[in-house]
Design goal:
Elements lengths: L2 H9 L6 H8 L3 H60 L4
């Protein structure tokens, strides 16, 4: 099949009815549409899954970062109190 014929069928879809499509490709239009719909649904499912995964990772990162900040604040307070203790304690 020449490229001009394929282009003509794309440009003039009425010339390319179900019977010709099935004869040329051995597949019905409805089967092709069903396959395209399946791929579209898979893509939507993939996008939703990736979106949920990103939210989960973001929440986990936020929780971990909050925990890190809390630990850092406690250590900073301990470090300040140790410095104060050292300054107040006379050296021997």
């Amino acid at each position: 099949m020449g490229s001009k014929r394929i282009i003509a069928r794309i440009q003039y879809p009425n010339k390319y009815d179900d019977a010709n499509f099935q004869r040329v490709y051995g597949v019905q239009n409805s089967d092709m549409i069903a396959e395209l719909m399946r791929l579209c649904k898979s893509k939507e499912s993939l996008i939703l899954t990736l979106s949920a995964f990103c939210k989960m990772v973001k929440n986990r990162f936020r929780d971990a970062f909050g925990h890190y900040n809390a630990v850092r604040k406690v250590l900073s307070k301990q470090n300040k109190s140790e410095k104060l203790d050292n300054e107040l304690t006379p050296e021997e």
